[in-house]
Fold this protein.
Amino acid sequence: MPNTDKKILLHACCGICSSYPISYLKDIGYDVVVYFYNPNIYPEEEYQKRLDAEKTLCEHFNCELVIGNYEPKIYYDYVKGLENEPEKGLRCDKCFELRLENSAKLAKQMNIKEFTTSMVISPHKNYEKLTQIGNRIAEKYDLRYLSTNFRKNDGFLKTNQISKSLNLYRQNYCGCKFAKT
């Protein structure tokens, strides 16, 4: 039985990356609410494939899934002027900020005191940078950002094993049209 006093909002970028984080958070006693908010994903068909995978995963783990609006215009406005930035540059930082800010707002609305993101499990993402952004946003909303490095203890291997066992869709780029090329 989940401890409803220990709820956490997990921003999920995709089913692959959120597989082990959901499992881990549940194992340490959290009641996990998954938030799929990714206006950066291009094209819309790709967004739908990733959302379908997330639905399958949340059903498997019996956790609540909140689906944010698909708002690519908001993403493009947010990163305007950074279109030519290299992958892992300032455009990515802004993208992380947009998604974590929306996660914090939802956590606050749902009266959930903690949030985190599945993005940190990826070996292609900078854990320290995401943690810094998460902590800054958490402070702004009087929340706690759970800075768990899900990569530790073979987390990336475990997330791939879980997603493979559920036959989840596997993408081959981060999500935005700038990373796709």
Observations:
- Helices lie at 15-27, 44-61, 72-78, 90-109, 127-140, 155-165, 177-180.
- The chain has one domain: 3-180.
